[in-house]
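Why run this: before we spend reagent on co-expression, it is cheaper to look at a predicted model of the complex and decide which construct boundaries make sense. The entries below are exactly what would go into the expression plan.
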Amino acid sequence: MIHTENLTKKFGDRTAVEALTLDVREGEVFGFLGPNGAGKTTTVRMLTTLIGPTSGTAVVNGFRVGQNDTDIRRCTGILTETPGMYDRLSAEKNLTIFANLYEVADVKGQVEKYLRLLGLWDRRADLVGNFSKGMKQKLAICRALLHEPALVFLDEPTSGLDPEAARLVRDFIEEIKTQGRTIFLCTHNLDEADRLCDRIGVMKQRLITVDTPTNLRQKLYGRKVVFHLRQADDALLARVRALPFIKDAQRVDNKLVLGLDDPETHNPVLVRLLVEAGADIQFVGELRHSLEDVYLSLVGSTDKAD
Amino acid sequence: MPKIWTIVDKEWAEVFKNRLVLFTVIFMPILFTALPLLMVAIGGSQADIGDVTDLPASYQEMCGDLTGSACFTLMMVNQFLLLFMMMPLIIPVTIAAYSIVGEKTTHCLEPLLATPITTAELLIGKSLAALIPGVLVTWLSFGVFAVISYMLVQSPELLRRILDPMWIIAIGLVGPLLALAGINVTLMVSSRVSDPRTAEQVSMMLVLPLLGIFFAQIVGVLMVNAQIMQLAAIILVAIDAGLVSLGVRVFQRETILTKWK
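The model came back. Tokens follow.
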């Protein structure tokens, strides 16, 4: 759906995006993470043809950026970081304007469909200036989807929303994901990225890494299993360490924290060994690192490199 | 073309909810129509002030065989008819200043530019939204002035001179050309400022040459005539062409987005 090759954007002497080479697959939710000023919004602006690249190439839905810009705008929808609406106009009028600009065939029908879908139909005649931030955000999402784009760019869709509104927006993103649309999601909310994204790219002027959230965790931390025992000692730890498949082992009070490549295969072996050694196993669980740990580790490592 | 009218429709729906714009569009035409009509009414009720030869030479040439009081009325009315040329400049500039800066202050510009609309369609839409009300209101006001003058003025010779074809050129052509120049300047100024009043004030500098003519007429230095209006129209066509060309260069999509703060 998106393919970029050494995509670079410079503003004067400052490089906002450096040699970005990226592939986003059709139908996936692609999370784009990075600190403020990392070049996420600039990348989105280049891919939506709002600004041109300094060098490199980008192809969006088969159309080349810089050559087929109008075609790209027709097949993409964008929720900008600050989703401005015309406050003096009604919700319905706001959407009608954009439906016309997006050349929607059934303007009335599409406007009604999305206002109903996001629970704004009863407020359609109200001035947008009287809407809450959450309602404006929902309306901006409607605007991005009115023309049924194959690719949707969402820049911080839940930023500044209360938990209830944020959840509603997240649920809606999951819903549009099931419709087969490709979603390019820029977010600072790592929990949101973890829950919604099939793959994640971490960006800081240049692309640091791209992978699934699970693989990113595994690459950085491996997989760890925690055995909660009634009583653990160093002798027991030594017996476990002696096993060939144990990558690392630590004792924390009465818990054994074990690094494994394949817990599904090795856990039963470990359980048997511990029971035979006389240990009483209370719980067994996987130690999961949050995406936040992964993100901070990746961004932190580039800080040191810089 | 449908996208241009969508922009025009949006602009009108939004901008006419702004009280200052609404005030300018309604109050100014009433004032600018009332003033010359007042001169016509006062002139009609005055006793004869003497022969036209008592007036400065420039007026004598303009008045021909009119009586002194009729010539004086014509002179006063002509001063205020210049206001009809200012009207299509002031109203569109007020509208354009709010419509352009409004896109910035409401953060609507980015989603707007992300639609398949071209920069030219956007700018034409915004220009038309500002130009059409100003020009229509001016023409309507002049029509009202002409009808009431016809009813008030007794002398057919004076009426003929008040409704001189020169004013058709002035109000029908020079006014809209001035408006177009004003809108283009406003669009460009808007790209550098974030306050509608600043954009409006800078663009209103275009009124200064008109004010110069206004005062030059009062002191008798210059008498507006058809030749001057034709020359003004030709000069304005050149100025407008230059401004439109400059405007298109200034309003590159990327420039609008990255430099409009």
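Chain A has two domains: 2-211, 218-287. The first strand of chain A starts at residue 2 and ends at 11. Bring this page to Monday's planning discussion.
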